[in-house]
Description:
Blueprint: E1 2-7, E2 14-19, E3 22-28, H1 30-33, H2 51-61, E4 70-73, H3 109-117, H4 119-125, H5 132-135, E5 144-147, H6 150-159, E6 166-172, E7 179-187, E8 190-198, H7 203-213, H8 222-229, H9 237-243, E9 244-246, E10 252-254, H10 259-263, H11 275-303, E11 307-311, H12 318-327, E12 332-335, H13 343-356, H14 377-386, E13 392-393, H15 397-406, E14 411-414, E15 428-432, H16 439-446, E16 456-460, H17 464-467, E17 480-482, E18 500-502, E19 504-506, H18 512-525, E20 529-534, H19 546-554, E21 560-563, E22 566-569
Parallel strand pairs: 1-4, 4-5, 6-11, 11-12, 14-21, 16-19
Antiparallel strand pairs: 1-2, 2-3, 6-7, 7-8, 9-10, 13-22, 14-15, 15-20, 16-20, 17-18, 21-22
Helix pairs in contact: 6-13, 8-11, 9-11, 11-12, 15-18
Amino acid sequence: MYTLGINAVFHDSSACLLKDGILLAAAEDERFTHIKHGKRPVPFSTYELPFHAIDYCLKVAGITLKEIDHIAYSFNPFLLIAEDEVNQPLTYIPFYPSVKGSPTNNPWNNLFLSYIINAPAQLVDGYPHHLTKRFKGCTEDDFSWHFVEHHTAHAASAFLPSPYDRAAVMTIDGRGELATTTYSTGLHNDLNRIGQVHTPHSLGLLYERITTHLGFLHSSDEYKVMALASYGKPTYVEAFREIIKVGENGQYTIAQEDLEIRFGLAREKDAPFTSDHFNIAHSLQLVLEDTVIELVNWLQETTKEDNLCLAGGVALNCVLNGRIRDHGKFKNVWVQPASGDSGTALGAAMWIDQQERPKKEKSFVMNHAYWGPAYSDEEIEQFLRWAKVPFKKMNDVAEETAQLLADNKIIGWFQGRMEFGPRALGSRSILASPIDTNMQSRLNEVKAREDFRPVAPVVLEEDAAEWFNNAEESPFMLFIYDVSEDKAAQIPAVKHVDGTARIQTINENQHPAYYQLLKAFKAKTGVPVLVNTSFNTLGKPIVCSPRDAIECFWSSPFDALVMGSFLIDKEDERKDYSSYPHLQTTQTID
């Protein structure tokens, strides 16, 4: 049984494909379209489906859309439509929003809902022409379509692929249909919701509003506010505690205040940062952590469970996750690596698979996030020859790349299947040595990022606890740890201003090539740590294909690119190209 999961409502459009409960493929559409987050979360873009990600998933399985049995879409529009309106053939949509607009009555709501209701028709008839091969000939009668409530999809993505047979489950994001935060218990392959917080009360939306107030792009740059927070002081803690009020039974309210009246004029994009900006970010982050810890502890006291599973955009806040791990009452915490909306495609698909094929035992545990496209050495070499790119085939990829890194070169690293979710985890990464104190600023320059942004380390799993205090297995880069005091001087590039680092641990089963590179670097330097940041530049998605990697590499000031078994080194610009026979002939490529 094939089950296709789709996320398309707000942002981070994505698709995944299951076969009898086993994940075959998953990817965000942005990686194929080169539009960051796929689209902006506005009603006018709701009709856009992740056709390229769907096409990729179908390609992996070797099937067409017509062979799909079930399609799970991670939003249920009928929760927002009055019962007496559900079967009405016509609805009102204004030409001008000012005619009917109000804070509680969005004039574009019917447009938004109509796009979702008609998504099945759009899927079978609205695909791009160049993707015809796997979509042509399919009708709405060929599959069963399921609208899955947004936070059910989040909760399913958190619990069903987790390593736990039973757990408490918390989802927390900006918005769904009605809920913004939910609490559930998971047992075997079932979920039972025990509570939820309703819109407009949303910790995620408050964080978005502050993101905008600080001059960043909401629904995109919230992680920058988290980074900025480390530079501030708790000046506005009491103000945020007046805005956020925690009640009983997991409930909370958010006062809908004018932020400029409360915190002063909003920062303009690219304007200098002031101490007030740092302090607002710091205070928000602190009160968010305190609030979520209170909610998490209520959930543990209510459910008596040892394990907690988290999803939703707020669960990408690795500083918050560290607080939950260290100060919450749960013994174990697992966070879905695609906790944002992209992960709802996976959750929706797994939920429908379980409804259609009920079973007690788990058939899939998400031990890694490498579910995107891969390219063989043959495909990579064919492209390099066609593009007349100077390259060298490496005899020992780990050994030769480790030497470049030990020589303080910044390396593009393109190996194996692309990651699913927002983190680069060693398949589409920019890597560097953590030994150089200036490496963080060098990388921020390479990626045209803000100076305050930290860079993260990857560490051999077996060495993690020695270099980061009390570090445990952390393959998805979703928790912070304090850098060990006796090791900090050896890895200054990855130590944030607050003494922490957002670590990724790696073992050989998860990614053999990546693991062997870390081993080789350790053998040369005594340091089992590298800097790992995403293979992209400001405002661009992480690269997907060899063409993406080459374009990013040649338009950015990093030193070399290791793609499969091939090395592309910018020092070759100064060499005689006559020594590269493939540059003298004409190639063709499909």
